[in-house]
Records
---
Amino acid sequence: MTPRFLLSLLFFTFTFTFSHLTATATATANATAVDGTGDTDFIRASCNATLYPDLCFSSLSGFAGAVQRSPASLARVAVAVALSKAHGAAAYLSHQTAGDEDSGAGAALRDCFANLEDAVDEIRGSLRQMRRLRPDADSGSIRFGLSNVLTWMSAALTDEETCTDGFEDVAEGPVKTNACDRVTRVKKFTSNALALVNGFANNL
């Protein structure tokens, strides 16, 4: 076997191997991109069933890789996001109630904070229940757990609405505006999470 033949064989083997690896890597990347797009499309389609689809998609699309196309995972993540938003608003209100001495706005803030604390507890309980759901459990057990989540998330939404309703007789001003704007935004996240949990329950 001549050196020239060996060199040609080595070159052919290298070229074939490199081409094969490149094609495989490209195919894998394309498949991953397609799967990622499908996961994102799943979230967008699910969010279209909520009252605030754009907010739903923008807040959940970043979790597409973890959610993939699982209604259970999507609902759980939505509840977690709602809890984060409610907790943040409650922390904001706690500082406002400590510094506001105006009788009307101050009383409304304190009541709102109390209602929002209840909402945080209810959403936290909902998330705890969602994490306890086992994929291998029978549908009856899952439905029972989800019924608790739906009850608590509905109660949380009611508490948030009660919070903003308490400002109806308060004069317009930055305290009222900031509190109501923040809690109104929280209501949207809670509403979306409730809709996604309900959609998951209805498809069991």
---
Amino acid sequence: MTRDVPLAHSPPVVIPDASRSSLSSGPSSTPDIPLSHPKPAPPQATRQRPRLRASKAAITLTPSAVSRLRALITGPSPHLIRIGVRNKGCAGMSYHLEYVEVPAKFDEIIEQDGVKVLIDSKALFSIIGSEMDWQEDTLSSKFAFRNPNVKDACGCGESFTV
């Protein structure tokens, strides 16, 4: 029996070439640095995330609308006014204004000349680019909206379609 037979059935062993290894200092020396290195810590973000800010307000207020809103907001119990859109009227949608005490999670806050107005998140795409005005006639007084997104409106002007 020869002793080489048991080694013939063993798995192959890879021996690194000393001429290509940068870890060894000589042909027969063992490396001083262990081959398994600890994993480095994951990189940390060093810069802050950019905040998205609108370059233009979703709605503009005329000076008469600002003065009327200021009169409505200042009172014994200060509130905010939310502008929304409801499915109503002969053309499909109409503007809806309501008092709220705190803004909802996704409301858009518009501040112009010291007056804060909220825009309902569901109505934002219907209202964006509009101008809000306060009009007083001998028979009525109301907020009027000039909306460039309106495709059709009813004859009385109470409802619109986008």
---
Amino acid sequence: MADNNTSSPPPPPPATMNELDHRSLPAWCLSFGAAMVPFCAFCYGHSRGFTTKVVERVVKSPVGVYGLFALPFFTLGMEKSIYDTVQSWQGLDPNVVPADRGGFPSGGASLPSFSLIPVRKIARRLTQAVEQEREQQQQE
């Protein structure tokens, strides 16, 4: 039997970050806010003694002191989940790495995506009008 695979190969990764990311300033503020809300909640909880309660509860749990080794992985996983979810909501695939990026500290794309939603295909419409306006101004 002949292989009738008509699917095209995946497109090459973007060469620069500018080819990948076309967000406007309000969209950047949304990303910043989505990252800062959990951080501010952590700071507030820390000021109220929540961190001490978590550490005490982990130490008194059946896993004991060794459970403290899991806390950094758990919190980094939560952070990556928030970041990947916001990027997917804005239409950016968190697993795409432009050719001019990668490595430390921006190596999160080499990990699996922890996004809670699929990459949104219509997010470009949010910034499309702004981009078209900029292109028209540049042409004039």
---
Amino acid sequence: MSLRLPPASCRLLAYASSSVRRSKKPKRHFASRFSSPLSSLRNASASVSTDFPIPGLEDEMVGYIFGRRKATDVAHSVWKHVVREGDTVVDATCGNGHDTLALVKLVAGESARGRVYGMDIQEVALQSASCFLGQSLGTQEMELVKLFPICHSKMAEIVPEDALVRLVAFNLGYLPGGDKAITTRSETTLLALEAAGRIIEPGGLISTVVYVGHPNGREEFETVQAFASGLSTENWVCCNFAMEVFPAYPA
């Protein structure tokens, strides 16, 4: 298996039997991953090319395969190679604020510039995220964050029309530590993905982590897959990292 990364067309990895073809102009990128409650491999061995395309991602990928890293760890590693200091990015599912914090650190740099737009439909999530960010960021960095109590399907309403959005991040499922009955839903997630596709700049990335360990998780993952499959190959590069076999989910 060869994993290669044409600099003009893609900044992400796809498990494929052939390398991605070059493109004359930058494409938009879409990457999805799904996570399970447990990840385990028995009698497995890993062989990873020493010519890994994204420096630093090799350890995260191997760690994810063997259950030592979370899907969000892989996502954060990829973001580092896409987001630049001063960029505008969107956290479409703030949750407790951990992804938001990672994004702030990427866009702020030493100059404390950039902008992070975050949203969550649950007020308790925004309160948790705001408290976490307040404890983790300095005053200047906090000024880069704007949090909104809205559905991610309405992200276009809060992002300025002239903004060049470099990354839109989704972490789909339920709020860790919150009410597990309140989850993201396929219908609004599809609308959110469509909205993200309209605001992302060429060369940018839509990143999704889908938790399939709740009753609607598998359906939502299939919705994400269907959205990716329908994107134009002229304008998009789509990648999918997935654990195909894992233990049965707890009731």
